[in-house]
């Protein structure tokens, strides 16, 4: 059981590392290859991140039509999330606090499997510490905001 846990941790780490590398480059940020519209299938994700991403996609009016049928989709979103309990961090005021930390990473690929876009998100604000919104909803909110900006850059 411990090996499976470590394997999951490694997959999340590699996904987050790839997302950070791809989204940090100005070239990739401007030439995402994302279409301006199409049908998007959101695959099941750990921690029910898919549910929160779908809700945020509708709330933020992404220009994609969401579909429950993978075969009808032009784009396929996959991802993973992680919830870490009892995370210690420091606020700007220097207070040590214990809280939860949620992270997530998603990838969007076309039908051929070509990766078009990837991003990572977390739920903590360094400045606000314990008063910040937290949870997978906030992770999904941040990821979908990044996706919306990438689509706008790609289409304008």
What does this 3D model show about the protein?
- With 156 residues, the chain is an alpha/beta fold.
- The protein has a single domain, classed as Double Stranded RNA Binding Domain (2-Layer Sandwich).
- The protein contains four helices and five strands.
- It has helices at 2-24, 26-30, 49-59, 136-155, and strands at 38-42, 64-67, 75-90, 96-110, 115-122.
- A five-stranded mixed sheet has the order 2-1-3-4-5.
- The longest helix is centred in the first third of the chain and has 23 residues, at 2-24.
Question: What's this entry about, in short?
Answer:
This protein is α/β, with parallel strands linked by helices and 156 residues long. The chain is 38% helix and 31% strand.
Describe the secondary structure blueprint for this structure.
Layout: H1 2-24, H2 26-30, E1 38-42, H3 49-59, E2 64-67, E3 75-90, E4 96-110, E5 115-122, H4 136-155
Parallel strand pairs: 1-2, 1-3
Antiparallel strand pairs: 3-4, 4-5
Strand order, largest beta sheet: 2-1-3-4-5
Sum up the overall morphology in one term: globular
Which structural class is indicated by helix and strand composition? alpha/beta
Q: Could you name the CATH class? A: Alpha Beta
Average pLDDT value?
Answer: 78
Give helix and strand order, one letter per element, not per position. HHEHEEEEH
Instruction: Give the count of helical stretches.
Output: 4
Q: Please bin the fraction of helical residues.
A: 25-40%
Q: Nearest-angstrom radius of gyration?
A: 16 Å
Contiguous uncertain segments of 5+ residues: 23-31
Taking the alpha carbons of the first and last residues, their distance comes to 48 Å
Q: Return the CATH architecture.
A: 2-Layer Sandwich
Predict the CATH topology.
Double Stranded RNA Binding Domain
Largest sheet: 5 strands, mixed
Strand content: 25-35%
- The tally of beta strands, per DSSP, is 5
Query: In the residues, how many domains can be counted?
Result: 1
